[in-house]
Design goal:
- By secondary structure, the protein is α+β, with helices and mostly antiparallel strands.
- The protein contains 26 helices and 23 strands.
- The strands form three sheets. Strands 15, 16, 17, 18, 19, 20 and 21 form a seven-stranded mixed beta sheet that branches. Strands 4-5-10-7-9-8 form a six-stranded mixed β-barrel. Strands 14-22-13-23 form a four-stranded antiparallel beta sheet.
- A hairpin with a 2-residue loop joins strand 15 (519-524) and strand 16 (527-535).
- Helix 22 (672-706) packs parallel to helix 25 (766-792) and helix 24 (721-755) packs antiparallel against helix 25 (766-792).
- It starts with a helix and ends with a helix.
Length: 803
């Protein structure tokens, strides 16, 4: 019996080759897209879930200033030892601080992310040690633990354990002994490093080990099995009152307003497994991102299922006599449903196999487009296999089960008399088509808004020259001050170089991938001043074309400028305005003497446009080395200017590569999330439109077939081809327009919520929805018109004879 069902199913599918091809192609595309999107979402959710200890948290501080809430994950150095003494809930804790970017072995230098940690680190996290001292690898201050990949790159086939190497910490090289090698951290780990040493090796440790006013590093906590976050945070109130008493006093004096729980400073925990999607600061991924991927995948599958349902129901009337005869001969409704559903399972099975093959072939391009690291090995995960089986079952149930139930309920007598009408199924078809195009229109609207916002961010004036300035990141193994001086000399007198300067923090995100920020706080005239802190060099204002509104720039002619500041207008507002700020002496905590404000520049966006402009203080100090050289070049031949700067660098440091870029490239890289967001919507909208139009085309074929005789009669009575095409197309256009009308307010609400995250944003206007309507209608008209024109051009004699 099963064999007969399979034969009948295959014959029926082959008989309706067009409908079968549309269904298989649409479902294949949908399955391929859904597979890739579900894999991506699964990987996003999998971050940090490989650790054995489940009570792992990151510490962060909420501070309520008079201006609003500040949330940060940087902690004072003495906090962790004090917390371990006073919190019985804390089973283990570790500080983590970037300590060095360079390791040296036998005169060869290797770029390395060396992190300073406490001894609890390797007991808390599941980073297995594979050789060496696996019990106490960081027992001594001169111990260093390497990842397997870094050990291989440094030592090759040599045994690394016991070998001595050096790390550059500040301006000095310090010797370490390799005590152990650990397995490489998975790529879905939020905690990243190449090597580990003791926290006490950090260059700032001695000067800040007892300083509660300076926050430099992150802290991770492992709670005892019985402990809870709520218990920790209750005890944290007493802890904050004890150790942050002076800071609390300053906040009250400055008029700070407590938060909802009545605290001015709150010490809180963030679950490690939540960090990737809900971290502290702008670097974490949006927590809605994986849900968006799943939603888009569900939308695309749903559209393909609607196609399947519509085409199956619409094509049922070509099989009505077959179904009627089978009922007369004793077929039960369940048997008919099983037969129809079996055909759906066969189509879906073929589509799934094609979709898997397509996903495999598209995976490299997909990884490149969305900056992912997916492998097909993910599909071997039991959870993903279960999800895939469930999705396949639901698709067949929805796409095949409902049409099978509708077809099995066809009235046998009406079928055999030839009096069966398609009215009700037409209504169902129209509802499904409207639903399909609502989703497509929604995605088109979201695409247009996301693209418009990204374009706005790219073109928004930032207040500095980003088109003509080259950013040159300095390798770790060169002396930064010497490199800046050498490049100044090399580029002096070059017609293609207008000025040279340096800084410790890049603008935007360079090709080296780094992005950083630095802040200082201090008391001034009875209130706390907080400012971003930027090390610059001579000609920084000139190089970036910043506008001086008062005072002057740094100059080598003034020896005291090493104790001077150039600030922005936002900073001047904190000091009482431009007049009051110019010449003010500021008691910066890291300075032995007050620093004088010698100049004030117009505000510029030194951070992403997601953030408002904040107070900024710029200083010159040989004690804080520059990390980047900025070179301003003429507007003429920019590639030639880049080639010149690269050539001069290679002359100054042969064999020591760097990766320069223009600042406009760097600022574009700040918006990787927006680009990915926009790319998702564009890809989804294209797929949704393509799949919807495939269904629309096939439906139009069936409708034109049913109206063949009517078209012939109209032509005989004098109807023109244009009037017939208009008549046949207008019903579809009405449905598409209705879809856009329904989708527009939904898109407006969703994207308005998304735009709230930006300090600088577009305002959604009606033109976007008109544009979406034009796109949707145009695509629908083109799709339907192909078949409408063909039907209108048929010989009316043949059309009238058609049964």
């Amino acid at each position: 019996m099963f064999r007969n069902y399979l034969k009948i199913a295959w014959r029926n599918l082959w008989k309706t080759k067009l409908l079968t091809a549309v269904n298989i192609l649409g479902l294949s595309v949908a399955f391929a897209a859904a597979i890739l999107l579900v894999m991506t979402a699964y990987r996003e959710f999998s971050y940090d879930r490989f650790h054995t200890n489940k009570q792992l948290y990151m510490l962060y501080i909420n501070t309520y200033h008079a201006q609003g809430l500040e949330q940060r994950a940087n902690m004072p150095m003495p906090l962790t030892p004090a917390m371990k003494q006073e919190f019985p809930e804390v089973k283990a804790a570790t500080r983590m601080l970037y300590t060095s970017g360079m390791l040296r072995y036998h005169d060869k230098v290797f770029e390395t992310d060396l992190e300073g940690v406490d001894v609890d680190f390797l007991h808390m996290f599941s980073f297995p040690l594979i050789k060496g001292n696996t019990q106490a690898p960081l027992a001594s201050l001169d111990n260093i633990v390497l990842s397997a990949k870094k050990a291989q790159s440094i030592f090759g086939n040599e045994e690394p354990v016991g070998k001595q190497l050096e790390a550059r910490i500040g301006d000095n090289w310090k010797s370490f002994v390799v005590s152990a090698v650990m397995k490489d951290a998975p790529d879905n780990s939020s905690v990243e490093f190449d090597a580990l040493c003791r926290f006490e090796n950090a260059g700032s440790y001695e000067s800040q080990k007892d300083a509660w006013s300076s926050s430099t590093h992150s802290v991770y906590v492992q709670l005892a099995n019985h402990a809870t976050e709520a218990a920790f945070e209750r005890r944290a109130k007493t802890f904050v009152n004890k150790y942050f008493a002076e800071r609390l006093r300053d906040l009250k004096r400055d008029g700070a307003t407590p938060g909802e729980n009545g605290e001015l400073i709150g010490l809180h925990l963030r679950k490690l497994t939540d960090l990737h999607l809900n971290g502290i600061g702008s670097e974490s991924q949006s927590k809605f991102y994986p849900y968006l991927l799943l939603l888009v995948g569900a939308f695309i599958l749903f559209i393909a299922c609607i196609n399947f349902m519509n085409l199956t129901i619409a094509g049922a009337f070509t099989r009505s006599r077959e179904i009627g005869m089978r009922k007369i001969l004793g077929a039960f409704r369940l048997q008919l449903i099983t037969q129809m559903w079996g055909e759906a399972v066969l189509v879906c099975g073929l589509a799934l196999l094609i979709g898997l093959a397509a996903a495999y072939l598209l995976l490299p391009g997909y990884n490149s487009l969305f900056n992912s690291k997916l492998t097909f090995g993910l599909l071997q995960q039991p959870l993903l296999l279960g999800i895939a089986a469930l999705i396949f079952f639901l698709v067949t149930l929805m796409a095949g089960g409902y049409p099978a139930w509708v077809i099995a309920r066809i009235n046998t007598i009406k079928v055999l008399k030839g009096s069966m009408q398609a009215g009700r199924s037409g209504k169902v078809r129209n509802v499904l088509m409207v639903t399909q195009f609502v989703i497509s229109s929604l995605l088109i609207c979201c695409t247009l808004i996301a693209w418009q916002q990204l374009n706005y961010l790219r073109k928004q004036p930032l207040g500095f020259n980003r088109e003509q300035v080259i950013s040159l990141p300095l390798p770790h193994d060169v002396n930064p001050e010497q490199a800046l001086k050498r490049m100044r000399n090399k580029l002096a007198g070059e017609a293609n170089v207008l000025s040279v300067s340096g800084t410790d923090i890049n603008l935007g995100r360079g090709r080296d991938g780094s992005s950083a920020t630095s802040r200082v706080s201090y008391d001034y005239k009875g209130h706390v001043i907080s400012s971003n802190w930027l090390r610059v060099d001579y000609d920084y204002v000139k190089t970036l074309d910043l506008t001086l509104v008062a005072g002057r720039d740094f100059s080598p002619q003034y020896g005291a400028d090493s104790m001077a500041l150039v600030i922005n207008e936002k900073m001047a507002q904190q000091l009482g305005g431009v007049k009051a700020a110019l010449g003010a002496l500021l008691p910066v905590s890291d300075s032995a003497h007050p620093m004088q404000v010698i100049g004030i520049v117009k505000d510029f966006n030194f951070h992403s446009l997601q953030e408002k402009i904040e107070p900024l203080s710029m200083f010159i100090s040989p004690g804080s080395p520059v990390q980047y050289i900025f070179v301003k070049v003429p507007r003429g031949n920019l590639p030639a200017s880049m080639a010149l700067v690269t050539k001069r660098w290679n002359e100054a440091y042969p064999g020591n590569q760097t990766d320069p870029s223009f600042l406009d490239e760097n600022t574009d890289r700040q918006y990787r999330k927006e680009k990915r967001f926009s790319s998702i919507f564009i890809s989804a909208a294209v797929l949704a439109i393509v799949i919807s139009c495939m269904g629309l085309f096939a439906i139009s074929v069936l409708v034109m077939t049913q109206r063949t005789r009517e078209i012939g009669v109209r032509k005989v009575l004098g109807a023109s081809v244009t009037s017939i095409v208009t008549l046949l197309s207008k019903d579809f256009v009405k449905l598409v327009l209705l879809s856009v009308i329904i989708a527009s307010p939904i898109a407006w609400y969703l994207m308005e919520q998304w735009l709230q995250n930006y300090a600088y944003r577009i305002h959604i206007n009606i033109g976007i929805f008109i544009g979406a309507a034009v796109i949707a209608v145009l695509v629908a008209v083109i799709t339907v018109s192909v078949q409408s024109i063909r039907a209108a051009l048929m010989n009316p004699v043949k059309s009238i004879r058609t049964e």
